[in-house]
Amino acid sequence: MPDLIDLRSDTVTRPTPEMRRAMADAEVGDDVFEDDPTVRALEERAAELLGKDAGLFVTSGTQGNLVSQMAHVPRGGEIIADERSHTVIDEAAGHAVVVGASIRTLRSGPDGTMDPADIARAFRDREDVHEPITSLVVIENTHAHSMGQPLSAAYTAAVAEVAHAGGVPLHVDGARLFNAAVALGTPASALVATADSVTFCLSKGLACPVGSVVVGDRAFIARARRARKLLGGGLRQVGVLAAAGLVALRDGPAGMIDRLAEDHTNARWLADGLAAIPGIEGLDPDRVRTDFVIFRVPDRTGFLDALAREGVLMVPWGREEVRAVTHHGIEIHHVDRAVEVASRALAATAIVRA
Fold first, then answer.
1. Alpha-carbon span 167 to 352, nearest angstrom
2. Domains of the chain listed by start with CATH number
3. pTM beyond 0.70, yes or no
4. How confident is the model over 24-60, as pLDDT tens digits?
5. What b/e string do you get for 282-311 counting C-beta neighbours within 10 Å, with b at 16 or more?
6. Reduced to 3 states, what is the DSSP secondary structure of residue 303?
7. How many other CB atoms are there within 10 angstroms of residue 37's CB atom?
């Protein structure tokens, strides 16, 4: 069988040779004592890139969102978030189990945005003892369930204005924030200038093996650091992981941010190829803005099994869709083969159904 083409997620990336060397040579200390110099350098670099005061290295995007909620939201408070967001769907109800908060969910449009007027209307009456107290607004950029749509700085500013008018902070789940920045041609710092806290993943398109970073003002980061410790996330000589992040966040071709444009190009190429296959449904290639391609097929299970038999991996997405994600290590020739295999897989499942 030819080499495996793994399009399940951009989390399947492998660290680059330079990352591996940096990890092996990393200067380390004890991060709980805040004396790991490589972690401190990564946190400072992340804060600088996003225009915030300070940063905190965490093990995952979910942990980053969770410590942010803990830092912002009192027990019994309420979070406003999109019903299709990662926080609502994909984080095992950590907001309820750990933070002790409810979530008031709103519907987002095809572009992944909630209407700011709907957000304003979702605020609770603080004077009514029957209602929870609105304590945080969360948005996701890029917005995964809208096929990785990037959210603009103007939209984020509009949401921040509503949040701040209601006396609460805005948190951006920026797991793929740098994909949004590259897609929009906008510095990541501009995309989150009006946000109070942001988390982004190193372990997705940036190709690091582990980790995310949370950024915000120093008082927020101090609270988030305490929350990280409570969750068991106080790490010791973790500079061996942070070193890969420093490589990823370098400027220009020496880093991993600019090359995300290749993933976006490959995703569009994949979408164009798939959309031309009879049996692929619900795929408009013009909506592919970043690294996600989402579509439907008549027999999802049969289709995915047929793909896997030929060495191409995709995943079920939502109730009836299929997702493919391009990333570091996926080249145009891999995309071409994936399209060929998808065509055969659809033909095979059609024969079985007949």
1. 58
2. 5-12+258-353 (3.90.1150.10), 17-253 (3.40.640.10)
3. yes
4. 999 999 999 999 999 999 999 999 999 999 999 999 9
5. ebebebbbbbbbbbbbebbebbbebbeebe
6. helix
7. 14
